[in-house]
Amino acid sequence: MPEPVAIRVVVNGSAREERVEPRTTLADFLRHTLGLTGTHVGCEHGVCGACNVLLDGRAVRSCLMLAVQADGAQVTTVEALARDGELHPIQEAFREARGLQCGFCTPGMLLTIHELLADDPEPSDEAIREALGGQICRCTGYQAILEAVRLAAAKLRAAGAAGG
Ligand code: FES
Ligand code: FES
Prior knowledge:
It is a single chain. The chain is α+β, with helices and mostly antiparallel strands. It has helices at residues 26-33, 89-96, 106-119, 125-132, 142-162; strands at residues 5-11, 14-20, 52-55, 58-61, 74-76. The protein has a 5-stranded mixed β-sheet, with helices on both faces. The longest helix has 21 residues, at 142-162. The mean pLDDT is 96. The chain binds FE2/S2 (inorganic) cluster (2 copies). One FE2/S2 (inorganic) cluster binds at residues 100-106, 137-140.
């Protein structure tokens, strides 16, 4: 068996240095080594998007990446969204607009939307649909999720305006 490899990553703002087997996926590293089980694994084939996390601010499929490929990067998981017991505006919007039901797809969905809204604070419905095209939800339906993203965008714009 290949020797474990030392990697350094900043996960949710904390610097981590760990040894991982070269074949360990980023998803398994986050879930099993770091205990961040908010990252969900659905298909393990890059299809469903449940495992999406942000790597240096960009949404990636953590089931398709090896942990060693994240060496030197900043990783953000769903655990970083809520602060001091307060949900992130995107999470609030998903709750208010009923953008989740079982919630299995939600972590990847939230991080994908986080990337979208960081790039485009007022996305068109077409842009939202395109971003959601890589995310599979089996129970809520996309109309509620579309509403949630519109609401999240409005909340973030309002927070930005309030924050000056
Ligand atoms: S678990 Fe990674 S895309 Fe489905
Ligand atoms: S809320 Fe259940 S899979 Fe999306």
